[in-house]
Structures are given as C-alpha cells and as structure tokens.
Amino acid sequence: MSKTNMTRRGVLKTGAVASAGVALPTIFTASSAAAYTNEPTGPNVTLGFNVPQTGPYADEGADELRAYELAVEHLNGGGDGGMMNTFSSKALQGNGIMGKKVDFVTGDTQTKSDAARASAKSMIEKDGAVMITGGSSSGVAIAVQGLCQEAGVIFMAGLTHSNDTTGKDKKANGFRHFFNGYMSGAALAPVLKNLYGTDRNAYHLTADYTWGWTQEESIAAATEALGWNTVNKVRTPLAATDFSSYIAPVLNSGADVLVLNHYGGNMVNSLTNAVQFGLREKIVNGKQFEIVVPLYSRLMAKGAGENVKGIHGSTNWHWSLQDDASKAFVKSFGTKYGFPPSQAAHTVYCQTLLYADACERAGTHNPCGVAEALEGFEFDGLGNGKTLYRAEDHQCFKDVLVVRGKENPTSEFDLLEVVEVTPASQVTYAPDHPMFAGGALGTCNAG
Amino acid sequence: MDAIILQILNGLDKGSAYALIALGLTLIFGTLGVVNFAHGALFMIGAFCAVTLSKILNLSFETVDPTQTDFLGNPLKVKTPYVMEWFGAETGAAIIDWAVPLAILFSIPIMIGIGFIMERGLIKHFYKREHADQILVTFGLAIVLQEVVKYFFGANPIPTGAPDVFKGSFDFGVMLGFDPNAIIYPYWRLVYFAFSAIIIGGVFAFLQFTTFGMVVRAGMADRETVGLLGINIDKRFTIMFGIAAAVAGLAGVMYAPINSPNYHMGMDFLVLSFVVVVVGGMGSLPGAVLAGFLLGVLESFASMNEIKSLIPGIDQIIIYVVAIIILLTRPRGLMGRKGVMEE
Amino acid sequence: MLGLNKKDTSLLVIVAALVMFAPFILNPFPSDSGLAQFNAGYPDLMQRFVIFGIFAIGFNILFGLTGYLSFGHAAFLGVGSYSAVWMFKLLSMNVIPAIALAIVVSGLFAVLIGFVSLRRSGIYFSILTLAFAQMSFNLAYSVLTPITNGETGLQLTLNDPRILGESATADGSIPVTSLFGLEMRSTYEMVVGPWAFQFNAGYYLCGIIMLLAFYLSIRIFRSPFGMMLRAIKSNQTRLNYTGLNPRPYALAAFVISGMYAGLAGGLMASMDPLAGAERMQWTASGEVVLMTILGGTGTLIGPVLGAGFIKYFENIFSKINDTVLHNWFSFMPDGLEDFVVFLIHPFIGKGWHLTLGILFMLVVTFLPGGLVEGGQRISRMVKKKSDDDTNAKTTPAE
C-alpha cells in the first residue's frame, strides 16, 4: 500500500511542507483544493472494490473479487487480456488507466447498508479511491450509490436487480450494467407464453422488501399482459428460512404457476420447499403445475441442487454463451481460478473495463467527465451483444438470457442452459416508465 | 379445514426443530446454569455432519472422458465415487442416497465429543462467572465455529437430499377422509416430526427412569446438596452437556434435507430458540418443548393469507407478540421455576 | 472540578485529550508505509468510534449499574436515526433539531418499552426487550416501508420539502448536513512530512457531545441516583423491604440509556444522512452488549474502549486482503512469503469475524474485567516493577 497519500490531493502540499519541515495546515472543503475528489496525481490510480465478504452472499462477493482482480490484471497489461481484446472500444492500452497503474482496495459490505457505506467511506477518505464498485444486493447498491453521489466519486453498481437502482433512486454518479426486474419480466413473458400458454393462474411468493416488490410488480405486469391471471401475491419475511407455511396454501389456491420472487438463501429454501410439497407433480386445471424463478443465479441454483431442474428464469449472463467475448472471459477466468465465472463476476468485470475505458476516452478521472463518456455509450464485445449505456437513467440495455435448470448436468457448474436470448429491443422501456418514475439523476458531483 | 390441518402439520414440523434446540439449551441452563450462545452453532454443526458424510461418501476418482468437454474445452474429467467402485454401482449409489440417515450414526460421537471438549475446555471455567461473561465467551465461540465451517464449506447453502424413498409427498388427507390431493405433505417432514418426537421422548425417559437422570434432576434442583451427598455432579453435568450437544446436532442432521444447510443457519435459529426457552419458562424441560410446538404452530397460522390480510405483517412478528403476551401474563413463562435466571 | 473528585477529573481530562488528539493518535504510521493500513484516523471511523462510544456509555448506565441486560437497545438507535433523517427531509439540514428530535423520540419509545419490560427481571426482561426490538426491525423492513424506506434505508432526495432549508442546492445536489452553516463533512488536512492528519468538523462535534455524555455518565455514577441503581443490582428484594419501589429508578435508567442510544442514532444520521433498518436488528443490539462486556461492565471508560475495539476490527481488518499481505511480506523469500500469507489469510479480509470471535474468547477468559482490567494489570505491573527497582536499590547485597 505504498500509494495512499502520495497519490492524493495532498501531494503538492506534501512537497512544500516537507521542504519547509513545519506543519502547515491547509483548509479544504470538498470542493476547494482539488479539481475533484481524490484526483490521482501520482503514478497510480486506486479503485475501491466493495463486496460482501461475510454474510449470506459471501461466495458471490468472493467471485466478484476474483473478477475484479482479473480485470485489474488485464488493465495493467497482465494475463491474456480477456475481454479487452473483444471489447469494441479500443481506448484501453493495457498500461493501466491513462498510463497510471491500477491499484485497488477491498472492503466488506456485510450486505448491510451501514457497513457498506462505512467501508466505501473509508476507501474514499483513507485510501483515496476515485471509483467505488461492487455489491450483491439492491439495498446496498442504492445506499452506496447515494454516498458516492455525495462524495463526488463514480459508482459502478455490481449485482443489483431492483428497478429502483436506476429508477426512483437513480443518481448522476451511479451506473448499472446489470439488468433489472422489468427486463426479467419482459424477457420471460414471451418464453412463458410459448411454454405454458396464455391461460394460466399465477401465485406470487415475494420477499418482503423493496427488491422483491419491484420484481413482483414487473413480473405480474408482464404475465398479466399475456392474459395470465394473478391469483395471489404473498409477501414472505426476509428472515424466513422455512417456507412450508407459505407453500402449503398454494396447493389448493387454484393456481397452476408459482412465481418465486426470492433471491439468495430465500430462493434456495422456497424452491426446495416447493418441490418437497410435490408442486411439480401436481396437475391443476388440467395443466401441469409449473414454478418460475425470475432471477436466477448459478451460485444460488447450486444450493437448491436438483430442485432447479426444468425451472425457468432469467439471468444477466452465463458462462456457456458461445460468443467470442464470453469465451475469452471464461477462458481467462477459468485458467486463473479453475472454474467458470458467475454472472456477478461477469458484470463487475465489465463495469471495471467500462469505467477504465470511459476514463481513457474522457481523458480524465473527473467523475463528470467519466459520466459524460459513459452516457449514451454504445459498445459490443463484452458478452451481452450490442449494449447501450442510456444517458437518461444510466442503465445498460442489452440482451437478456432466459435460462432453465439443466436436466442432465455434466459437471457441478453445468446447472443452467440458455433457452433464449431475448433481444435488447424487447426489454427496452421508456425512461419515464411508471415503474421507474419518481426520481431524478440530479447533476454530476465531482466533489 | 384442510388449510388449517396443513398449517398445524407445518407448525408441528417447525416446532420440532425449535423444541429440539430449546430442549438442549434448557438442559444446559438447568444443569450448568450457563447461557450457551453457541447452541445454534451446534445445530449448524450437526447439519454439516450430514454434509460432510455425504461429501465423504462422494469422494471420487477422476477418469477422462474424451467424448465430452468441460467449460474450457478440455476433455471432461468424469468423477466416480469410490463407494460405487468398492460396493458396485447400485449398492454404492444406495449408500450415497442414504447419507443423511447414516449421518445420524456419524454425528452422535462427533457431537458428544464436541460437547465434552466445549464443556471441559471452556464452559467449565465459566460456571462461577457472570452470565454476561458466559454470553460473550459462547458468542465468540459461536462466531469461531461458524467461520471455521464457512472456511471449509463456503457461504452458499449446500444441497443435501433425503433418500429417494422419502422424496416427494404423501397424501395425508385421504387418511383423514378428505378428497385426494387436499392435504399433501412431504414424507421427510413427517419423518422429521416422528424423529424429534422419539428424541424428546428418549431424553425425558432417560431423565425420568434412570438413576443417572435422577441425580441430574436432583442436581438441577439443588446442586450443592447433591454435591454434599458425595455424588460427583460435575462429571454427570459434563455428560449432560454432551447429550445436549448431541440433541442439537441430531436436530441439525435431520434438518439438512428440509433446507440446504449454510454456515449461518445456527444464528438464524439462535434468537428464536432463546425466545422459545424463555417463553417455556427457565429451567423447565416440558416448558421448552411445549413452547417450541406452540410457537411453531402459531407462526404457521400467522402466515395464512386470511390472517395476513386481516393484520398485515403479523407473520413477521407473531413470535415476539406471543412472547410478550405470555411473559406479561405469566411471570415465569409457561412452566418456569422460581428463581432461575431472574436476577 | 465540575463537581467531580480528583480521580474522575483526571479520567475526564485524559478522555478529552484522547478525543481531541485522536486524529494524531490514530494515525501513527506514515501514509506511504505498509503499516498505514492500520491507521484509523480518517473521519468516518473516528466518528464511528465516538458515536458507538456514546451508545455503549448509555447502555452501561442501564446494564452496568442496574444489571438489567437489555437485548434490544439497537431499537432506540434505529428510532433515533429515523427521526433525525426525517428532520433533514422535512425541516432543514441543521443537525441540532435532528439530534434533538432523535433524543426525544427515542426517549418516548424507551418509556413505552421500558414500562412494559421492567415488569419482569433477569432473562425474562432481556427477552422482552429483544422481542420489542425484533418487532421494530421486522416491521421497519417490511410493512412500515412508507416511513422507513425498508431495505434500502431512509435517504434524502431532491424532492424533500425541507421547509427551513432548500430542497436542492443551486448546482442541483442534495444539500449536506451542517451546524449553522459549518458543514459536517468539511475537513482540515494537516500534512507533516509523510503523515497526513485529518480534522473533521463532524468528528469534533461528535467528540464534544461524547465528552458531555461521558461527563454526565460520571455524574450519574457518582450521584445518589447512581447508588440507588447499584442497589437494584445488588439486592432488589432488600430494596423492596426498605419501602422503596425500585421500578421508577430502573425505568429512569432505562429511559436515560435509551436517550443515549437515540443521541448516537441522531449523530450517525447527522454524519451520514441515511437510516437503515438493520441498525435495529438483534445483531446490532448484541454488538453493544459485547462492546460493554468486552470493555468492562460497570466501569466508566470500559464501554468506550470496547466500542473502539470492535469498530476497529470491523473497519480495518476487513480491508486487509492478500495483495496487502504480499506487500508486507515481500521482503521474505518467495516460498516463505506465500506460506506466511497462507497462514494469515484465514484471519483477515473475509475472515475478520473469525479474528474477532477468537479475541472475544481470549479477552473474556483471561481478563474477567474486560479491557479495563487489562489496562489495570499493565499499570500494576509497571508500578510493581518500579517498586522492585527501588527495593533492589535499597536492599544491600549480602
């Protein structure tokens, strides 16, 4: 950690003071002394990787960290370059960011807003991080995004699926590559229609917090547009571990589809319980009973074991994709760590590259310059096909994958198979869509 | 009606887990006077005994299958468990399939051993200390145990299935004269309920009908007098700690197929089981069991849609509401003894 | 001085000096050295030290004096934070009304919960407070989302009314918290050679409030009221027989300590205007219990030490990663370096919980009086040593 203050705004003062040999206090509020918060003046630039290292999402966080380290290696010219070779923008040279070597600090969000903000603050205040990224839940992403807006650094969101991140809680300094609840609904609906028809009765079990609600709203709207009837929407406590008492009423509710708006441990348990109760063997209204898990994560699907077989959901990216970019990423990640990357790893790798590329194109680390370079940026070659970083809400628009739990997996990683790639045009919505209304980006803050 | 019966079944099932954990906690409270915050961790270790055994049984050697490729495009290495090699494919598969029931045998010595080590190595030194110190040290231990498990098994839940014959569900309603398919209940949950009934019965019988149990009960009532009679109560208390650990561990082993075990499942149950113990009344074993089932059933009822629409959010807080009501109407919980942990 | 005896005055002066010079004391390592990782002298963590210090001081008034172990104290912290953030949303960004409202609301909340819970004692009391706190947490996370903003936490937005302030600043940002115009986030940076010391306005506000809170707690400890509370701890029955009803005293202690928690919550929101439901979870309540026991229950300074200890580990150890380790040990031969990193790896970064758990066990096993006892032992050892030295001089050789 030789960089810390040498790269910080204190460096000029340091020189002056050191030669004088006396203490010379310098005043600054967030806006006076430097051009922007944590302007890197030394030979290095520091990025802050803020991921859950303890708590239920620790494995996802660990996978994100691996991807970050890989991205830093590639940015600094090490390794095989991964997706830098397939990325449509060629601004990155493999010499760090604008010739400055990329350094990083890590922190633990604990999947709690408070801890995540504390960790991000220490990166900004102590380590001089010029960009914060990471996270594995929407609550944390929104909390840290707000902090970065205030502090004047860029936030590149990690895994966050709530509509609110780029909806009512969007911020000028925050950017999201991951997809969201609305997109899941829009991508799943046509597939569900083909598979299960238009005359279905859906029963929603929803984790009782903001992410769950936005996903429930999105999926219900998308399926109702197909002509499905929503029988019931039941909220389950986040802390619930045994879902039996929520699953049991489904049996005789007349529903023939169960939608599980759960993630992480909730999803593993609710799906396991639903299968235990024999829902998948049931015939209701003359139709086979079906279960849908709108947001899939391979790491979590592993926890549910063989219960995921044949169950449909959506995902941001999957390692079995056969485009050049995905193959390059899987190859460099798999060679380094011995197993394929998760969607969380993929999205944070992309975010790091996108940030670095935006700096190069803007010619500055100033968050306002970087934000301008990212806004409306169209790119390809990062594994999701042609993608647009929309200026109005800082959300990426790209293809969404509909996946299914594989019947005959060949390895412990081979749990999902891609059923359909829904094109970006089908999941695009207007920036003022009612599900995303109520917030404003505000203006970019450079500190 | 069928919905109510289903929720009673669910409640009894949840209650079994609560009751088993609370039973062990109360044994430790009652006999040793120690607040054991690591008891949830013992439950978790039990579940991981099942995971470990199934991993051991799945230990495999690799053969390269050139017809298939792995994610990097290299020839796929196919794993074959040694058990299948030694006992033949069918018997081997059956042994792996029965990993969880087998883990019962595997876990008893392990849990009793852990209990002994915990009591002799650590808890023993805290008998005379304040409850606050006991909380701190056992909480520290719980964190350590949990982190060790996380280090070896990761943070994600690990699926550990029940044997095939117990997968799927059973039409309970037909037996009671309902229409087919009205009340369907998973086999394994019924097994879990029966299993915990046996364990609870076993512990009570042991305390009621053996000399050892009699001495322990006497020790719970008045430790000093029993000591004065020349009975080595400490040794018996160590054994009781081992038994309490084993009860928590068995509850964990059998719970593994219901919900995939993860390293923090102990903490998830810890607070709840304390509430159960206190609602049941400090120092009362029947109280702990009764409270476990009562809270389990009430929690299940509260999550019925009819009740949720009446009082939104009731399923989130029912346990605490019940706890407050009971503690305010009955000063020492349902069946608590006077003077235990009241100061 | 200030109505304190000599010993207490010197304790207060020492604490005041520690608080005032914390930016120096907590930043002992030059910022370009590898050990800079252990520096804790940046505004956010210093603020957390003193805020959790206040929380623990308040908790100790209840637990240390009366022996009532509340397992739901985080609820008051949470309620305080929510009140403060609502004040920022509705009234103005000045921290004074926010902190005042936080104290008042949490005080009222404490009256309510205390009145019910204090009808029972011992573990029954603990479980009652736990039940109330968990109810608050669960409801704040779900049904009460309109008030608490649920999982995301209550945040400021550009559309807040802020009747005495402005909804948005001229450049379109959310205004920042301030004390009559002095921004809480403004920081002096003093650079001395390779050191950089940060003096943050918010930290000094929290620090001064903590000193006031600490002073008040000394006065309570030394007052007749404090004696009364100790009497409750040592023998409540005897107190009853003397014709005194202990409950009003216990309730007063409960409410005071709830208001301390509310103050801490209000300060947290003032430093960083966000209030999340997980501040009320049982783990948060458990944390303050651990802080108090770890530092030394019933001692004046113990809880503050315990709070600092736990927050230090949470924020510093969790940030050490393998790359940092490799930097530290890069002077070793390669194989040895990897081996050392491999040995330390489980205890840092994602393993910081493990280190904390082990330290809990070590401290409570070997220092029954908590960290304070550790300090006492060291000072006794030093004293004894100097005594030995003088003895050695005076005793002639034989």
Describe the structure.
The complex is a heterotrimer of chains A (447), B (343) and C (398). Chain A is of the alpha/beta class and 447 residues long. In chain A, 36% of the residues lie in helices and 19% in strands. Chain A has helices at residues 11-20, 58-75, 113-125, 138-151, 181-196, 210-226, 244-251, 264-276, 298-304, 324-337, 343-362, 367-374, 424-427, and strands at residues 24-28, 44-51, 101-108, 131-134, 154-157, 174-176, 201-207, 229-236, 257-261, 283-284, 287-288, 290-295, 312-315, 377-379, 387-389, 396-397, 400-405, 416-422. In chain A, strands 8-7-9-12-13-17-18 form a seven-stranded mixed sheet, with helices on both faces. A five-stranded parallel sheet of chain A has the order 3-2-4-5-6, with helices on both faces. Chain A has a three-stranded antiparallel sheet with strand order 14-15-16. In chain A, helix 2 (58-75) links the parallel strand 2 and strand 3 (101-108). In chain A, helix 2 packs parallel to helix 11. The radius of gyration of chain A is 23 Å and the shape is globular. The relative contact order of chain A is 0.15. Chain B has a single domain, classed as ABC transporter involved in vitamin B12 uptake, BtuC, CATH 1.10.3470. In chain B, 68% of the residues lie in helices and 7% in strands. Chain B has a two-stranded antiparallel ribbon with strand order 1-2. In chain B, strands 3-4 form a two-stranded antiparallel ribbon. In chain B, a hairpin with a 5-residue loop joins strand 1 and strand 2. In chain B, helix 1 runs parallel beside helix 8, helix 1 packs antiparallel against helix 11 (233-255) and helix 2 (39-57) packs across helix 11. Chain B starts with a helix and ends in a 14-residue tail after the last helix. With 398 residues, chain C is mostly helical. Chain C has a domain at 6-281. Helix content of chain C is 65%, strand content 5%. Chain C has 17 helices and six strands. In chain C, the strands form three sheets. In chain C, strands 1-6 form a two-stranded antiparallel ribbon. A two-stranded antiparallel sheet of chain C has the order 2-3. Chain C is globular, with a radius of gyration of 23 Å. Chains in contact: A-B, A-C, B-C. Chain B binds chain C through residues 35, 122, 125, 129-133, 135-137, 139-144, 146-148, 151, 271, 274-275, 278-279, 282, 312-313, 316-317, 319-321, 323-324, 327-328, 331-333, 341-343, and chain C through 63, 67, 69, 116, 119-124, 127-128, 130-132, 134-135, 138-139, 141-143, 236, 282, 286, 289-290, 293-294, 297, 346, 351, 353-354, 356-361, 363-365, 368. Strand 1 (24-28) of chain A pairs antiparallel with strand 4 (187-192) of chain C. Chain C: It is a multi-pass membrane protein. Chain C: GO terms for molecular function: branched-chain amino acid transmembrane transporter activity. Chain C: This is Branched-chain amino acid ABC transporter permease. Chain C: Keywords: Cell membrane, Membrane, Transmembrane, Transmembrane helix.
